[in-house]
Write a structure and sequence with these properties.
The structure is a single chain. The chain is mainly alpha-helical. The protein has a domain of 63 residues. It has four helices and four strands. Strands 1-2 form a two-stranded parallel ribbon. Strands 3-4 form a two-stranded antiparallel sheet. Strand 3 and strand 4 form a beta hairpin.
């Protein structure tokens, strides 16, 4: 799998099959040689062919590998954690649409100010 680097080192995790490539397209020579493209992410298959682009990789993986049985439970747990995090960050119990009455209050003030003039 080819991805953009997170460190200054140009290549890492080769044993896992993950190779970091330079951010600059013109410096992605190794990626072009390996996959025929300079686009990331790219997945090089054991037979030497490559799958390029996130959507194409996801399609390939879903067609060739079964989703583990525990995946749905994990996804639900992650969604619950994400929802709790957002609720804590927001620190509000009502949806954001409660700001509409505030606008009416402003317009009343501006109309009463113009009535005084």
């Amino acid at each position: 799998m080819f991805s953009s680097p997170t460190t200054a080192e140009p290549f890492s995790s080769r044993s896992a099959g993950i190779v970091s490539v330079p951010v600059e397209r013109e410096a992605r020579t190794a990626l072009r040689e390996a996959t025929g493209s300079d686009t990331i992410p790219a997945l090089r298959l054991e037979n030497g062919s490559a799958v390029v682009g996130e959507e194409n990789i996801l399609v390939y993986l879903s067609e060739h590998f079964a989703e583990p049985l525990e995946a749905e439970a994990h996804q639900q747990k992650a969604a619950t954690a994400r929802r709790r995090y957002l609720e804590e960050e927001c620190e509000c119990s009502q949806p954001a649409t409660h700001s509409a009455p505030e606008r009416r209050t402003r317009s009343k003030r501006s109309s009463s100010a113009s009535a005084r003039s």
